[in-house]
Amino acid sequence: MKYTEEHEWLRLEDGIVVVGITEHATEALGEIVFVELPETPIDVSKDDDVVVIESVKAASDILAPLDGEIIEVNSILIENPALVNEDPLGTAWFFKMKLKDDGELDGLLDEDAYKELIS
Predict the structure, then answer these.
(1) Strand, helix or coil for residue 36
(2) What's the mean pLDDT when you consider all of the chain?
(3) Predicted structure pTM score
(4) 110 located within any domain
(5) 44 is in which domain, residue-wise?
(6) In this structure, what CATH number is given to the domain that contains residue 44?
(7) If 96 and its partner were Cys, which of 20, 48, 68, 72 is the partner (CB 3.0–4.6 Å)?
(8) 21: how many CB neighbours lie within 10 A of its CB?
(9) d(CA 24, CA 112)
């Protein structure tokens, strides 16, 4: 698994990258009450706003971690946004994407570097 400084996690599965937010992010946001996902498919560039989440504390944008095409979204989160708090590293992924360059994953944080970032 790889991580961004914006508290997103990325997991490569059969050439597709699954993207969600970390447990640290959900703790900082508090109870998630709303999730807005993009239409698919959609081409995105790194740092494009792609998902909006609202919690009892704030509204936040989830950014595209890398360049590519979002090919699938987790529509379960629209009906059950609290799932993000319950299982942020598992069933509460936000979207799946095909990267323009899989090599860009190497530039992201590994687990140790992410733990150091949040400590």
Answers:
(1) strand
(2) 96
(3) 0.95
(4) no
(5) 2-101
(6) 2.40.50.100
(7) 72
(8) 25
(9) 14
pLDDT value, residue 54: 97
Residue 111 in domain: no
Could you tell me how far CA 18 lies from the centroid of its own chain?
8
Residue 116 domain-assigned (yes or no): no
What amino acid occupies position 31? E
**How many domains are contained in the chain?**
1
Alpha carbon distances (Å) from 102 to 4, 46, 53, 98, 108: 15, 13, 27, 8, 11
Write the pLDDT tens digit of every residue in 23-60.
Answer: 999 999 999 999 999 999 999 999 999 999 999 999 99
Q: Which two tokens stand for residue 8?
A: 């997103």
CA distance 93 to 117: 22
Residue 57: both structure tokens together: 């504390």
- CA dist., res. 88 & res. 63, Å (int): 16
Measured CA to CA, the distance from residue 113 to residue 46 in angstroms comes to 20
Q: What is the 3-state secondary structure (H, E, C) of 3-26?
A: ECCCCEEEEEECCEEEEEECHHHH
Whether 119 maps to a domain, the answer reads no
- Position 82 scores a pLDDT of 96
